[in-house]
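Summarise this fold before class:
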Amino acid sequence: MEKIITQRLILRPLCMKDARAIYENINHDPRVLECFLSRYAPSYEEFSMSSLLNYFKSNQACAWAIVLKENNQCIGLIFENGRHLERSEIEIGYAIGYPYWNKGYVTEAFKAVIQFYFSNKFCHIISASAFAENTASIKVMKKCGLVYSHTVKNEIKWHDQLHDVVYYQIRND
């Protein structure tokens, strides 16, 4: 997996040195975990970066740290959430720390990852999904050129509530 450089970001392979940043930006922030399916860690000692890295490694999935060029700070991650080779499709997931929301970072990272997969001919379809109420994530998908595919009603139970999940995709035929 190669490093991807954008105007403001460096996307590099996620690694152990990102543990503190991922913990602080994602796994210890209830605002992020409202819509991102990951376990809340009340303390850094209860967070397991090795479990996360082992998950990606065992599934042979790409996972990048989203790093700001200006200060080399990891602010989130973008990753393969699923690989469906029979239909030449890769599903992408992402999460970013609350202080970095609404600044275009996820859109910039996602566009670069789409370009990476399509230019290297790894797949013909890239998809992503979000809870129907997660309008910010839906806007990211649309800005990246993904179009609505379908909705699954009550697909995921998260925080004791059933959520409809909307799916978007972009094709490179």
Q: What stands out?
A: The beta strands are 4-5, 9-13, 63-68, 74-84, 89-96, 125-131, 147-158, 161-171. The mean pLDDT is 94. The chain has one domain: 4-171. DSSP finds four helices and eight strands in the chain.
